[in-house]
Write a structure and sequence with these properties.
The chain is α/β, with parallel strands linked by helices. It contains eleven helices and 15 strands. Helix 8 links the parallel strand 12 and strand 13. Helix 3 packs across helix 4, helix 3 crosses helix 10 and helix 7 runs parallel beside helix 8. The longest helix is centred in the last third of the chain and has 15 residues. The protein is globular, with a radius of gyration of 20 Å. Pfam families: ADH_N (PF08240), ADH_zinc_N (PF00107).
Length: 333
């Protein structure tokens, strides 16, 4: 099979196209012919050799995919060859998703929703599972106020859909471009609920948008210095949902001084605890929500087919924060 391999930590020149053996499945695994793979920030963080690189199990990156089962081990339950599926493989696959095939434990996969493309389905698992993990950990009520920092990305959009589907509508969100702001409008947020974060006195504007009140919940999907603003607008003893682990030392000081409850969100934590069924069960639930029209599939930007050039372009766009509210996806034939 063809795959894009990372030959060493560093810039995008370290990718190359290679020919690899077909993965051999284990008793409880399926072999998936990958039809589409989505890109995530953790991909370029791994490429750079940052903290996330410790999760690598293969020189082939990519953690998210959609495709067709071509082989199933004797211990596989509920899936068969020909099934169209999606998965967040994490580091449990035989290799990453920048490839034509992957062997993966059947408990980690879900059936692709009907009526959407493989490319759309490939964009669901990572953002959908992370958003669902955030949503269930938050336990927010209909009267709670929520601020989402950097909401136009995949996780933020999915989280807003989940919250609104449950009747939770007191949401203020930030985005950094006109295109991203329009994306949030398309989710049902109004012009008074969406704030461009490239402004002076950002914290003041966020608080004003919330009726001069601090927030019950803050969700940080950005990290860096803007996480300090996110911490500032949280109530005393409020709840801070950290999806990035990229807050600054000042962020942590502000949260400590507020007596905040910090909830760390890492979808790979379930795999680390060998709770693989959480992935498949959650993907099946999200798939039903999409099939039933309660939420819709993510917006995507298909940037090419499996090639070194496509992978390099995706990594450059993600590093430059130029995805503008659409998940980057490549087609694999």
């Amino acid at each position: 099979m063809k795959a894009i391999q990372l030959n060493g930590f560093g810039d995008v020149s370290n990718f190359s196209l290679v020919e690899m053996d077909t993965p051999v499945i284990k008793n409880d695994e399926v072999l998936i012919q990958i039809k589409a793979a989505a890109f995530n920030p953790i991909d370029y963080q791994m490429r750079l050799g940052l903290r996330e690189s410790r999760l690598m199990c293969s020189p082939v990156l990519g953690r998210e995919l959609a495709g067709v089962i071509v082989q199933a081990g004797p211990g596989v339950v509920g899936f068969k060859p020909g099934d169209e599926v999606m998965a967040l493989a994490g580091s449990r696959g035989s290799n990453g998703s920048y490839a034509g095939l992957m062997a993966l434990n059947y408990q980690m996969i879900g059936i692709k929703p009907k009526g959407i493309s493989f490319e759309q389905a490939a964009a669901i698992p990572s953002s959908g599972l992370t958003a669902w993990h955030s949503f269930t950990r938050m336990q927010a009520g209909a009267n709670d106020t929520i601020f989402i920092n950097g909401a136009a990305g995949g996780v933020g959009r999915f989280l807003i859909k989940l919250l609104r589907a449950q009747g939770i509508s007191n949401i203020i969100a930030t985005a950094g471009s006109e295109q991203s702001i329009k994306t949030l409008y398309s989710l049902g947020l109004s012009s008074t609920e969406v704030i461009n974060y490239n402004q002076e006195d950002l914290a003041g504007k966020i608080i004003t948008a919330n009726g001069e009140e601090l927030f019950d919940y803050v969700v940080d999907i950005v990290g860096g210095s803007i996480s300090e603003t996110a911490a500032t607008v949280l109530k005393t003893n409020g709840n801070y949902i950290d999806i990035t682990f990229l807050g600054t030392e000042l962020t942590r000081q502000i949260l400590f001084d507020k007596g905040a409850t910090t909830c760390n969100i890492a979808a790979y934590a379930f795999a680390a605890n060998n709770n693989l069924s959480w992935y498949g069960e959650t993907l099946r639930y999200l798939g039903r929500l999409i099939d039933d029209g309660k939420i819709d599939a993510p917006e995507i930007n298909v940037i090419g087919e499996l090639s070194v050039e496509t992978v390099q372009q995706a990594h450059r766009l993600m590093e430059a924060n130029c995805i503008y509210g659409k998940k980057l996806v490549m087609t694999i034939s």
